[in-house]
Design a protein that fits this description.
Radius of gyration: 37 Å
Oligomer: single chain
Order of helices and strands: EEEEEHHHEEEE
Strand order of the largest sheet: 6-7-8-9
Distance between the termini: 79 Å
Structural class: alpha+beta
Length: 170
Amino acid sequence: MNFFMHQCRATDIVHGKHTFDCPSREKVPVACGPGESTSRSVGNLRVSKFRKRQGNLILIASLLGAFLALLSVAAVWERVWALRQARLARLVSRYNSLEIARRISRREVWQGQTEKQLLDSLGPPASIVLSPAPGHGAIWNYGPRRGNQFRLSVTIEDGLVTNCDPEQHP
C-alpha cells in the first residue's frame, strides 16, 4: 500500500485512520487498525504508538528513580540515627546519666564538665596553652581561624571546665 508517503504530510486523524495530504491526491487515508503497522514514515514525520509508550516509559522510569532515591536517603538517615542512638547508649553507660549523655551528644560545654566529658563532647583541641603559674590549669582552643584565633577557648583547672569563652563559641 504505497501512496507516495515520502512526499505526504499528516493533517488530522479521522475515526482511527490517519489522513495525509499528498501532492498526487487530495487526501489519502492510511489504515491504522489491528494487524497493520502502527508506524508510517512521512518525510520528517513519524506517526507511532511507540512514541506514546516511550513517553509513558520515561515517566515511569523517572518516578521509579525518584522512589529509589528516596529509599536510599531513608536508608542513610536510618543508619545515621542508629549510630547516634548507639553513641548515646555508650555515653549513658560511661557517665551513668542520661542528661550528661544528651548534653555531650549536643556538643555542649558547661562549667564543671570534666576533661573526659569535654573530649567526648568536642574531641581533641586544636591547641593547648598551659599556664605558667602552678594550679592555673590550661586553655584548650577549638576551631582554629587565622593565626592565633580560635572559635572556642575553654579554661580547665584541676581537671574541670571553669570558663568557656562565650564570644567565640559557635
